[in-house]
Structure to design on (569 residues):
């Protein structure tokens, strides 16, 4: 019943639904208008050769990052309900026999569900555009992997944001936090700037930030096909360099992260943050 | 049903509640009277398991709110001062959600919601969104929410503040009906004296301390007096404070032949309140 309530509160608030996809719409709009051309041109110059696979490659890398961003920002709106409740309905729940743990769980589950739904919507939009740009349609296995990535990414992002919201008392502070996270996360996911062009220190921050592995997973599923065709005639080193440059994989010294390594990072992070938030709620005094 | 002994509640430096005592009997309508910031809401928060007390004892339905919050929560229903329902859900949806917090499911939940809607006489607007309702309708919805699990004790924190006189009297009638027909114990706070006059017992709180307690009649006889105003045919004007209304009789008898106008003004609870709160400041 509480989960149903949280879902109703989100989906009935048309503005909340719209804004949770706003970032996707803006980037998509900018990309279609001019960003796409600029980036493709830059890539052509960098590679030193032209290929009809360049538009598909560029689009799939950018939009993979964007989907990963959405998987975090979309459930953020839903977690806003948990913060608003602290100011209003919270005392009503607190004076009922239902335990605060159950209420907390209802916030987590409903926001995760909303995150999966909204991310899937963004995923469908973005994949359609990538395919339109010349990428091949993802097959059945790819779809399964995409769904798995979405699930892990949403759960992990949701857990991280939830952990932060346990320290936030007002919806004003929450809005400020969402804005900061929403802006930062785009950089961390490598949507705006290729990771390889950033200073070494910043690169390490991104590599160690667990959520950026979600972007890497999406990129591997969506972009690797186009990449291997693009680099079909080039030496392997060129492909590897490119993948590192655009954050398709992360290189830690001699170790190169793969899909399942990144998935494990997400799972472990999720378990840790969920455990921490539930622990905090159990041990922190309620007022 | 509710017992409070030497209850203290401090917020760091501020002593919000400073050693209060009172008892609310089962089935009674109890008014907790005080100005804004007197400590009414703090007391409610302690009794309803929202705040820990600083010292003293209190029991609600025989349980200590701090030691057995779960037991207390089963027994009580609360109408908060500000609205706590979700504005974009309908009243029925709100009631279903809040009802589910009391382990009501399926058919039981449905009938509990219908029961609350019927008791509060909502009918036609129960399916409208809470945020679209008028102040009085919202208050009814708030009360329905507090009743959805049919508590034994109903707390109302300033239930009539901000409502027009007609709606206020409607809400009062509803509260009294609940108390009478369901045997509910009602604990309410208010700063309207004339409302408190309808209750079984009153405690007046001022700056965290109980200044007076008793039935409305007891308070009136103790803290305010009637005034006799006589105008004589000669134009002479006599005004006299009376300890008892009957004291007027010998005076009237004395001036019998020369009276032009007689007025006896009964003391009201407003006088009691002003005497106890405003008056003490002097």
């Amino acid at each position: 019943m509480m989960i149903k309530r949280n879902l109703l509160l989100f989906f009935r608030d048309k503005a909340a639904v719209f804004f949770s996809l706003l970032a996707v719409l803006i980037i998509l709009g900018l990309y279609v208008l001019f960003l796409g051309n600029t980036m493709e041109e830059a890539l052509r110059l960098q590679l030193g050769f032209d290929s009809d696979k360049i538009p598909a490659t560029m689009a799939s890398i950018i939009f993979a990052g964007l989907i990963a961003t959405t998987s975090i920002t979309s459930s953020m709106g839903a977690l806003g309900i948990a913060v608003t409740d602290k100011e209003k309905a919270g005392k009503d729940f607190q004076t009922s026999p239902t335990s605060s743990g159950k209420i907390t769980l209802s916030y987590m589950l409903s926001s995760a569900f909303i995150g999966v739904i909204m991310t899937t919507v963004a995923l469908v939009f973005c994949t359609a555009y990538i395919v339109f740009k010349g990428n091949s349609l993802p097959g059945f296995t790819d779809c399964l992997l995409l769904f798995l990535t979405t699930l892990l990414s949403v759960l992990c992002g949701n857990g991280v944001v939830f952990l932060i919201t346990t320290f936030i008392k007002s919806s004003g502070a929450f809005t400020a936090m969402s804005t900061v996270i929403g802006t930062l996360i785009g950089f961390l996911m490598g949507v705006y700037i290729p990771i390889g062009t950033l200073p070494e220190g910043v690169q390490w921050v991104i590599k160690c930030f667990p959520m950026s592995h979600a972007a890497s997973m999406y990129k591997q599923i969506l972009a690797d096909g186009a990449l291997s065709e693009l680099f079909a005639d080039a030496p392997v080193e060129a492909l590897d360099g490119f993948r590192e440059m655009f954050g398709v994989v992360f290189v830690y010294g001699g170790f190169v992260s793969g899909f399942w390594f990144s998935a494990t990072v997400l799972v472990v992070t999720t378990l840790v943050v969920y455990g921490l938030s539930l622990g905090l709620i159990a041990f922190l005094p309620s007022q | 049903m509710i017992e409070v002994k030497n209850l203290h509640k401090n917020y760091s430096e501020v002593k919000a509640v400073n050693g209060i005592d009172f008892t609310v009997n089962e089935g009674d309508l109890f008014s907790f009277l005080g100005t804004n910031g007197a400590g009414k809401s703090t007391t409610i928060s302690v009794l309803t398991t929202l705040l820990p007390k600083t010292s003293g004892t209190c029991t609600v339905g025989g349980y200590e709110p701090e030691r057995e919050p779960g037991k207390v929560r089963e027994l009580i229903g609360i109408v908060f001062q500000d609205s706590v329902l979700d504005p974009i859900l309908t009243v029925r949806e709100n009631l279903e959600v809040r009802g589910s917090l009391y382990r009501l499911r399926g058919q039981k939940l449905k009938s509990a919601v219908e029961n609350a809607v019927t008791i509060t006489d909502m009918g036609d607007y129960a399916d409208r969104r809470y945020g679209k309702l008028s102040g009085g309708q919202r208050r009814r919805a708030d009360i329905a929410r507090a009743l959805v699990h049919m508590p034994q004790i109903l707390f109302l924190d300033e239930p009539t503040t901000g409502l027009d006189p007609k709606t206020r009297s409607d809400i009062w009638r509803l509260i009294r009906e609940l108390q009478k027909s369901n045997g509910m114990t009602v604990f309410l706070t208010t700063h309207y004296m004339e409302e408190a006059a309808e209750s079984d017992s009153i405690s007046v709180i001022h700056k965290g301390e109980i200044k007076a307690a008793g039935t409305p009649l007891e308070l009136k006889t103790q803290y305010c007096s009637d005034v006799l105003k006589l105008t004589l045919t000669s134009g002479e004007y006599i005004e006299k404070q009376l300890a008892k209304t009957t004291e007027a009789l010998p005076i009237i008898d004395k001036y019998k032949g020369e009276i032009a106008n007689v007025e006896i003004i009964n003391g009201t609870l407003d006088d009691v309140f002003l005497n106890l709160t405003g008056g003490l400041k002097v």
Summary: Chain B touches chain A through 28 residues (CB under 8 Å). Chain B is about 35% helix and 30% strand. Chain B has a mean pLDDT of 87.
